[in-house]
Specification:
The structure holds two protein chains of two kinds. By secondary structure, chain A is of the alpha+beta class. Chain A folds into two domains: 80 residues, ACT domain (Alpha-Beta Plaits, 2-Layer Sandwich), CATH 3.30.70.260; 67 residues, 2-Layer Sandwich (Alpha-Beta Plaits). Helix content of chain A is 31%, strand content 40%. Chain A contains five helices and nine strands. In chain A, strands 5, 6, 7, 8 and 9 form a five-stranded antiparallel sheet that branches. The longest helix of chain B is centred in the middle third of the chain and has 23 residues. Chain B is an alpha/beta fold. Chain B has 21 helices and 20 strands. The chains are: A alpha+beta, B alpha/beta.
């Protein structure tokens, strides 16, 4: 059964690598739902966090195909239960909606969102959470008019305790043969 | 040229010299032992060509007539010699013309390094003349690729390219070099690459897995070996032979594994797959343990996966982790180099004969001979058949030639009926099925193994896709033999149209040129026959001829290749007629 799977790919960030990563998905007609590239805890190693809807069998094959790429050091796949994950969403609304007494303020409060900035004409609200949470806030703010909305890709931390550096030193050992 | 007095055959020298990027390219090639390169010049690669001119005594440049020919020639060279093939082209159309050959090398695990020129760095992305994003285009079909934009990058990138191309599961590498990097200077020194961070070309073999494999094999009643090109790439032919001879296990091959085991070896039971032999296809669904070695379960091998060897416990010996459990689920996966694994496995397995089990294959062979082979290889009336031509070729080559094929019916027939006594002797486009492969690959094979007889077996369709490479045969005087099996059809497609599309021969009939005139125009001695009684002398004459030779044999127009596993059917449902 297809399910939401998070793929984590680790690499020294090099020009063209993003293309190599994404073609591994597109050639299998796997739609990328979100993609985040960032640093990792190891200097020089970048991390691609990719969310897809695939079966576990597909995930295993995909990770092997990714790891086969010369410049990719390691790849992992996770079920949602295997990770702690969050997204961040920003909402631009009219300044009036954030004025004292506006029921929209109560919505923001209830969602533990915060008002990031208030300008003359508009305000920006920030909400960090799972996708359902940021979506629910969107639904509830919609009646007050959302001028602009953006949600980041997923960032995720894995539950297993084995560290990336241990995987990489194993690989380093194997590549010395 | 270098101003240094040092000899040019550097290996891992630490002394540096100030040279241009374009000279560095040539020096890198020399350091990697390249003495032959296939290519075609053009604007963005001219500085390198200028150096190739200066170094023409050390590196033989073979001028192809289309860049696709350069990649296929490099493939043929690599497959015949076991070395890395090299080719070079300019930017834009030069680079895009390489792509088919690169894709072919990717799917058939052939080590080649392709060099392309590129517009200067400051023009990248400007839609400059002959600019194309060859990196973007080639990424899905290369094992690795890199765009060099400054001369200092050249030595390390070339070293990595050659290492990546030939190590582990081999494959094509593309190096794109901007023109400014060719003109610029660097302090040159060359160090060969023998490892790349986090890249594990030869996985450590897990001895427990080998033991599990041995246990399965020792308890098997009907074991079956299926080997692929991995045996050839790891040069494990002798180890494979030792393993099957000790265990008495019948061994079938994929098209890419052909020639790794002598044709007349009693345990060689033939080809598995769509046009493979009857026994291997039927028995794959009878065996209790399958030992798959250095192969990847292509759909042309397995047919319908749901009905492929479901009863068997599968041992998969494979160097590429991504191939394990990809198509066929394994009982025991032994990740590693075929030679290494076989060396560990053979001492652990019991000697056996499996006489009764092998007899079952022979019974199938008798049936296939009656239904298919006799008609195909020993006809006495009607037009000549492809099979009888190949059988006659065997008679005169004594199974000692390199057989290069194109793609189609003749390919299947050549692979089914050619005799081999030596490995690296079957050169064909297996995975990609690239028509046009045959002639340029045969040129490359002959240059890679000049002491061997090289015969390109081609069809009238495929030959016209790269017939321009006759120009190489003329200019470089390559003593290759071309055997055209002419049925005036795109035969394989026509066969499918006959069997599955109610004989609607859509766009498969060929109105052909006079191939004799074409060959003669390129000063290739040519002959054409259409009578059975001319065959023996014509083949003999072709092979004995001193130089290149073109023999055209007219064969039956609507002959079919059997046996055949219809697409989507189970291999065991193989049709004999």
């Amino acid at each position: 059964m297809p399910q939401q799977i998070t793929i984590a790919v680790f690499s020294e960030n090099k020009a063209g690598l993003l293309h190599r990563v994404t073609t591994s998905f597109t050639r299998r007609k796997i739609n990328i739902e979100s993609l985040t590239v960032s640093e990792s805890e190891i200097p020089g190693i970048h991390r691609y966090t990719i969310v897809v809807e695939i079966t576990e069998d597909e995930a295993i094959k995909l990770v092997h195909a990714l790891e086969k790429q010369i410049d990719i050091q390691k790849a992992f796949w996770y079920r949602n239960a295997d990770i702690i994950h969050r997204e961040i969403a920003l909402y631009k609304v009219r300044a009036e909606a954030m004025q004292e007494g506006s029921p929209a303020l109560e919505v923001v409060d209830r969602h533990h969102a915060r008002i990031l900035s208030v300008e003359a004409e508009f305000a920006v609200i920030q909400k960090t959470g799972r996708r359902e949470a940021t979506h629910q806030l969107f639904v509830e703010l919609e009646p007050y008019g959302i001028l602009e909305f953006v949600r980041s890709g997923r960032v995720a931390i894995s539950r297993p305790m084995k560290e990336l550096k241990d995987y990489l030193s194993e690989l380093h050992f194997a590549s010395q043969r | 040229m270098s101003t240094s007095t040092e000899p040019k055959t550097e290996n891992s020298t630490v002394t540096t010299e100030r040279i241009t990027g374009s000279e560095a390219v040539v020096r890198c090639l020399l350091a990697e032992g390249v003495d032959l390169i296939f290519g075609y010049p053009g604007g963005a690669i001219m500085p390198v060509y200028d150096e190739l001119y200066k170094y023409r005594e050390e590196i033989h440049h073979v001028l192809v007539r289309h860049e696709q020919g350069a990649t296929h020639a490099a493939q043929g060279y690599a497959r015949a010699s076991g070395r890395v093939g090299a080719c070079i082209a300019t930017s834009g159309p030069g680079a895009t013309n390489l792509i088919t050959g690169i894709a072919d090398a990717m799917i058939d695990s052939t080590p080649i390094v392709c060099i392309t020129g590129q517009v200067p760095k400051h023009l990248l992305g400007s839609d400059a003349f002959q600019e194309t994003d060859v990196m973007g285009i080639s990424i899905p079909v290369t094992k690795w690729s890199f765009q060099i934009t400054s001369p200092e990058e050249i030595p390390s990138v070339f070293a990595k390219a050659f290492f990546v191309a030939k190590s582990g599961r081999p494959g094509p590498v593309l190096i794109d070099i901007t023109k400014n990097a060719q003109f610029g200077e660097l302090d040159f020194s060359y160090e060969k690459c023998d490892r790349v961070k986090s890249y594990v070309p030869r996985p450590v073999v897990d001895l427990e897995r080998v033991q599990e494999a041995a246990d399965l094999i020792n308890n098997a009643k009907k074991p079956y070996v299926l080997f692929g090109q991995g045996v050839i790439l790891s040069e494990a032919e002798r180890e494979l032979k030792a393993f099957v001879e000790k265990t008495g296990i019948p061994a079938a091959w994929t098209i890419m594994g052909l020639s790794a085991m002598d044709t007349d070896h009693p345990l060689n039971v033939g080809m598995l797959g769509m046009h493979g032999n009857y026994g291997p296809n039927v028995m794959i669904n009878e065996c209790d343990v399958m030992i798959a070695i250095g192969m990847r379960f292509d759909d042309r091998v397995t047919g319908n996966l749901e009905k492929f060897a479901k009863q068997a416990k599968v041992i998969h010996v494979e160097i590429d982790r991504a191939e394990i459990d990809k198509n066929v689920k394994t009982e025991v996966a032994v990740l590693g180099d075929a030679k290494e694994v076989l060396n560990l496995l053979t001492p652990m397995v019991n000697a056996n004969q499996h006489e009764q089990w092998r007899q079952a294959f022979r019974d199938c062979d008798a049936k296939e001979y009656e239904k298919v082979i006799r008609n195909e290889c020993e006809p006495t009336t009607g037009m000549m058949t492809m099979g009888e031509v190949i059988k006659n070729l065997n008679k005169h080559t004594n199974g000692e030639a390199i057989i290069v094929t194109d793609v189609g019916q003749h390919q299947m027939v050549a692979c089914r009926y050619s005799d081999f006594k030596q490995s690296k002797s079957n050169i064909t486009s297996g995975g990609l099925g690239t028509m046009g492969f045959g002639v340029p690959a045969a040129i490359g094979a002959k240059l890679g193994a000049p002491q061997r007889q090289v015969v390109a077996v081609v069809g009238d369709g495929g030959i016209q896709m790269t017939i321009e490479e006759f120009g190489v045969i003329l200019q470089t005087d390559v003593h290759v033999k071309i055997l055209l099996l002419n049925n005036e059809f795109l035969g394989m497609v026509r066969q499918w149209q006959q069997l599955f599309f109610d004989k609607r021969y859509s766009a498969t009939e060929m109105i052909n040129p006079d191939f004799q005139l074409i060959a003669q125009a390129y000063k290739i001695t040519a002959n054409k026959i259409d009578q059975r009684d001319e065959l023996d002398a014509a083949v003999k004459q072709m092979l004995e001829h001193e130089g290149p030779y073109f023999l055209e044999v007219m064969v039956g127009k609507e002959n079919n290749v059997f046996p055949m596993v219809p697409a989507g059917a189970a291999v065991a449902d193989i049709r004999l007629e």
